[in-house]
C-alpha cells in the first residue's frame, strides 16, 4: 500500500527527526515484484573516461577466456577489479537527487518509486601497463623471410591484420599501433609482419654497403637512389622499411633523405655477433664489433642496454646476449628470472631489464624496494631476491 503524508510524518516523529530540517519531499521506495541483481553491472569511471562516452566514443573490454579482462579507451588500458561495498546500491529509475528536488519547487510532496534492482559490488578501473608482450610473440610465429620464402607461399602461416591484433592484444588501439612501430613491424599485403632477423640484417647490409660505396654522409642518405640501386636485389618497400627502421626520414629541397641511427645499427650488428655464441670474451668482442660496423660509426657498450650483459666477475670478462623482450611481463616473474641468471645485481645492470615495468610516475628505485633486498658488496650497493629462487 502506498504511504500517506500522515504516515510519513508519524515515521519521522518515531525516528525523532525534525521535519523542518529536511526537504519537504519524501521518497517512498518499494521493491518491484521482480527485483533482483538483474542484468546490471556498475562501472566506476574517472571523469576523463566518462567524457569519452558522453562524446560518443566507445570503451572496449579485451581479453581471451584465460586472461583477466582489461578495459581500453582509444589510448589507455585499465585493469578491471570487482569492488565489494557494505552499502547496498539500489537502482531506481527516474530517481531525483536532493539538488534536483531543490530546483524543482513545484514537485509534489511524496514520490513513490520502485526499486528495479540492487547490487553489492561494482567494477573498479585502475590504469595499468598495456599487455604488449603477446604482440611480438604472435608476429614471431611466422617472421617474414623475404619475397622468395617458400613458407609464405604456403597458406598455413599465421596472418594478423590490425583488426585481429585489436581482438587478441590487451591494449588500446594507440598503444598497439605505437608498439608495432617500436618493434619495427611492417604491413605486407595487409598483414602485420616482423622481419626475420637474418633477412633484416641482409637488407641493412645492402644499405650500409651502398652508403659506403657512394661515400654518402650517414646523416644524408637519399631514398630515391637507394631504391634505384637496390630495387633489383630486394622489393622497394623492404628497402624503404629498413631505412625507416634504422633512420629518421626528412625532406630537403623536395627530396626524401634519411639520417641513419648510429646506435641502432651498432646494436643490431652486436646482436648478430652475439647470438651465435653462449659467451664472448669481452675485449675480443669489442674488437670484432668495431670492425663489423660501417665506416665512421663508433661502438659503445651503452648501446647494448637491455640486449646484452657484461659479466665482470669472470676472468677474463665476458659478454652474453640477454634481451629484455624475452623476459616475463609480470613484475614478480621478471625479478625471479633475473635473479635466477645472477644472484646479485647492481642498479646500473638491472635498470634496463626492469625499466619497462615502471607504472606511471613509478621509479626503478621504488620497484627495487618492493621486489629486492639491498646490501653492500665491496663498497657497491647490490640487489638480491627477497624470496628464495627455486
From TrEMBL:
GO terms for cellular component: chromatin; chromosome, centromeric region; Ctf18 RFC-like complex. Keywords: DNA replication. One of its GO terms (biological process) is DNA replication. Pfam families: Dcc1. InterPro entries: Dcc1. Signal peptide: none annotated. Belongs to the DCC1 family. This is Sister chromatid cohesion protein DCC1. It comes from Nyctibius grandis.
